[in-house]
From TrEMBL:
This is D-glycero-beta-D-manno-heptose 1-phosphate adenylyltransferase. InterPro entries: Archaeal_FAD_synthase, Cyt_trans-like, RfaE_dom_II, Rossmann-like_a/b/a_fold. Its EC number is 2.7.7.70. One of its GO terms (biological process) is carbohydrate metabolic process. The lineage of its organism: Bacteria, Pseudomonadati, Bacteroidota, Cytophagia, Cytophagales. Residues 29-153 form the Cytidyltransferase-like domain. One of its GO terms (molecular function) is nucleotidyltransferase activity.
Length: 163
């Protein structure tokens, strides 16, 4: 499957989710900005996928990221980020969302398992009530220490200042 085929609109994704559910597949959902892909993302997404059968990634649009992380972000546009994330073997679907949070997306998809890195407590994870209310699980995956997009940006800026 070409990575482009893994990027869905929400109506397309809901059809795909129904097909997966009819096959008895456990649907895992996570979300994030994923501006610059790094080892922490890869480690946590691989582990998230192993919690079920299909991993859906909700990806913030450029406008959403600019609102929640500031006007200097994102560094990579949404279609670039979507293709990069869709290229990962353990990501089964990518869907963009333009809101500040993925709450509406999670209410529409009704995943069986909701996952974030453990930089978030379960009670902080947007949508945890929705998933728990239908008997689903909300889990966190330990961070790989020292890896963040912000740190990468800072390293680049420091290197530029040194040269
Ligand atoms: N070092 C890490 N190890 C494991 N998971 C991580 C790590 N950093 C971020 N994540 C997870 O990746 C997802 C996307 O986070 P995000 O795109 O904000 O990455 P980030 O590197 O923290 O970016 P920023 O520095 O801009 O906040 C979140 O669920 C977060 O919990
Ligand atoms: O990449 P981030 O900043 O970890 O992703 C954010 O996660 C928020 C989270 O789901 C809160 O529990 C979400 O509200 C926000 O839109 C980003 O996706």
């Amino acid at each position: 499957m070409n990575s482009k085929d893994k990027i869905y609109t929400l109506p397309q994704l809901l059809e795909q989710v129904q097909t997966w559910r009819d096959q008895g597949q456990i649907i895992v959902f996570t979300n994030g900005c994923f501006d610059l892909l790094h080892l922490g993302h890869v480690d946590y997404l691989e582990k998230a996928r192993q919690l079920g059968d299909k991993l859906i990634l909700g990806l913030n649009t450029d406008a959403s990221i600019s609102r929640i992380k500031g006007p200097s972000r994102p560094l990579q546009d949404e279609m670039s980020r979507a293709r990069v994330m869709a290229s990962l073997l353990f990501v089964d679907a990518v869907v963009l969302f333009n809101e500040d949070t993925p709450l509406e997306l999670i209410e529409a998809i009704q995943p069986d398992i909701l996952v974030k890195g453990d930089d978030y407590a379960v009670a902080q994870i947007v949508g945890h009530e929705v998933v728990q209310a239908r008997g689903g699980a909300v889990k966190t995956v330990p961070l790989v220490k020292g890896y963040s997009t912000t740190n990468i940006v800072k390293k680049i800026e420091n290197n530029c200042n040194l040269n």
